[in-house]
What does this fold into?
Amino acid sequence: MNEATPFDTPAEAAPAPSANGARFAGNERAFWRLLIRGAVLLLVTLGIYRFWLATDVRRFLWSNTEIAGDGLEYIGTARELLLGFLIAIALLVPINVAFFLAAFSRGVIGQISGLLALAALGLLGQFAVYRARRYRLTRTVYRGIRFHQTGSAWRYAVCAIFWWAMIALTLGLAYPFAQASLERLKLRNTYYGDLQGHFVGSGTRLFFRGVLLWFAVMGPFAFGLLVAIDRVDWTALGEAGRRGGDDIMSRIEAAGVAPALVVAVLSIAWSVAAAAALYPAFQAIVLRWWISGLRFGELSVASTLRTRAVYAVYLRFMWIALFAGVVLAIALAITLALIGGLEVWLGKGKVTELLTTAILVGTYVIVALAYSTIYQATVKIRLWKAGFESIELTGLEALDRVNAAGAPGSAVGEGLADALNVGGI
Amino acid sequence: MAAAGTGIFFDGVTSARRPVLVELASDGVVVRDAEERDMLARWPYHELDHLAAPEGVLRLGRAGARTLARLEVRDPALATAIDDASVPVDRSGASERRSRAKVIAWSFAAMVSLVLGAVYGVPALADKIAPLVPLRAERWLGEAVDTQARKMLDKGDASRPFECGPVGAEADARAALVKLIGRLEAAAGLPIPLHVKVVRRSEANAVALPGGHIYVFQGLVERSENADELAGVIAHEIGHVAHRDGTRSILQAAGLSFLFGMLLGDFVGGSAVVIGARAVLQSSYSREVEAAADLFGVELMNRAGGDVRALGAILTRIAGANHPGMEILRDHPDTKARVAVINTVAGASPSPPQPLLEPAEWAALKRICTGR
It folds into this structure.
């Protein structure tokens, strides 16, 4: 048996499979083709094709990933996703109608219905996230045995909402503890066959690894906010806002806004720039921490992911995005010229306006799809590769004696996640 | 044709990785343990399931099997032989491409029919359903919308009430308004009572809500030159009430959000398509509705014995010369066209001998928001 020679078109020379690691052998050119074709079809079907594209992407990523010498396999189908989406719509329509009617009723229910709807849909969104994870796990096969997930999705939803509220209240400081807690809950309920997973990543450790980043981003922000609060005469500003009128600007200036505003805007701009520059470092820290916390029975995982590698991924994305930006700008200029020509050709009127609108909206959609495609084809695939290839496994014997267990979960969670816009991969 | 080769077998029950010998029998693939030679599986060719695998690996399962048993073949000659022998195994991807082309064609057809549904189906359906909504439901809806509309319209100048007229000093004006509305309402013969209020807002406008609520803005009263002009605009708004346009537009909005918000457009950049399509479609529904309300208003003025052309006159005055912006996003038809239609319909009907209100009553009504 010759393991290195593929029988179709010759692939790029893949690194030798390591017995205690993982590798990703996906051909990036093929992934580009898949994504570009998918983007075009999304455009012409106004998004209906998304179930097939998502399935293709997952199948590509899974089946090209090899752990300890054996490949992962994704056995989900687009048909399941479509069905799950339709069921989710059937569930969500009555809920939406109920909230719509509640918004119109008088009294307390009408008053709090907006808040109620937000809370309910938030909870349902997290429920969907957990159920979607179950769907993906039960469609993941390794060595002829599927993964599965147990546990109550409602319990997860309540925990997740609680932790996201804590993250918001602490301006992000609770993030490591939230991640640790939620990952513990998820992994405790994750099984490979009859082999139970668990998560040993410590929130405190992640906190100390990331807290400097937090200061670099939030420090200037807080400073700007404090300056604004200290220097601006808020009662005068509130009065100016309430009275409105033509001289609102002069009243606002009288409240001492201008100098404070400059300081606040500058420090917040600094925060945003710092957040963008430090995001890859943050992602590397979290990914390394997460991978190193994964356990399945006696099997433990460690990650040697380099922060530098994550930066390289994003730099490459920026170069390609910049190049695409130039190309798209030229295309936009041609489009605008076309619209100008259209007005000369057809004269002003409904047809011209409809065509103009269609062209402008189409251009926007093409730009958005183009950047999403570039992001997936550069960042997503490379981070997937870097993440998997940084893995070191110990206690591999645990994987040799696993028995099949668990039944395939339904795709309703995926459908809900799609309909509520909380979808994952 | 290679009749045998090696592979890796997973039995789907345990995770054990077994090197196997693969033989191609006449009816199927026979899998034997590489050392002990006992048969592990015998899969008929037509039940083979060709599964996703990295390049250089042929991964097979058995269709319809309860376990996820897998056979992986890396030997190119053997893989080719299995491909030749089995119909479902198709490494060229031709059958996959055919089924995918079908998916694409049907998705495209679904998109087209959903868009046609939004353009033609939703307004037609709303037209059919709106008259079927019980009046009690519309009244309930009207009260709820009324509360919300008040919140939006009322800028909250605490020194004066939002509504003009209820205070004692404005009683004459109030009486004139009641008389004017009474004449129109009697001529209209509506299934639900009207609630017309003049409110303190400077725009020259009026709005009709579900359940017979009509808000006439102070600015409109001020810019009306006679009672018939004001009555003409109110008659147009009564047209919305008679046609149940408030209920209809809520139904249309709900239908559009369902079609565009839920079924279509959930992809990056799709929200732009949704927002654009909704704006254009809702404006186009609205233009039709406004034209119908104009016709109703003209007829109502005729029956009430008012000056039919007054609506055209005040529209021309408040609209000014030209609208800026795009025609397809305008929720009212072009003013010139509206006035032309109004005047054509008004046609031969003679100017009434006397206006709807006595001069003194009109003078009182003009002062409805001044508090004097």
Observations:
- Chain A touches chain B through 73 residues (CB under 8 Å).
- The CA atoms of residues 194 and 405 of chain A lie 6 Å apart.
